[in-house]
Amino acid sequence: MDLTLKSGVKLLLKPVPPYAIWAAIAKLEEPKVPVVMIEAKGREEENPFAPEYLEQMDEFNAKRANAIHELMWVFGTKLLEVPDGTPRPEDDEWTEQLDYLGIQLGTTKGDRYVQWLKYCAITHADDIEAFTLAQTRLGGATEEDVAKVAESFRGDEERDTDMGDGGEKPRKQRRKIRISASGDGS
User: What are the structural domain ranges in the chain?
Assistant: First the structure.
């Protein structure tokens, strides 16, 4: 299956090996749930609602999503065509933009390819959505699964979220989406 990005760059899409995804996730360390002493019960219990833990989990989930997405670009694509006037991954022309942003150029061919895709070839958010949906299909997902992924691209609107506040009306919470320039989710 081919995917042509809005920049005119054409990619061959390939299935991503599940073990590669698992290996990328395994490199990340999930935050530990804090434990608090419950005097009334005379024992310690985990507190998964501690604000600092929730913040750490948000950061962890952003790093995990970024790691999977970058892995999918490296393992799940092959460059087929670059239109005239667009630098190629091996060219140095586009790397000056990274210098301006304070982003260090990756040391491996895969790092450089992902950075080229992020900062040169992908010129519209629709490219990211199209890629993700196509990869979901290549991975053997059903149309229902694909629809769920598509729904996740709704944006940053408000949603009702049950914050575990003892049955009170759920509070409105804004969904945060992090896009990392450094590639590490931070």
Answer: 2-28+49-154
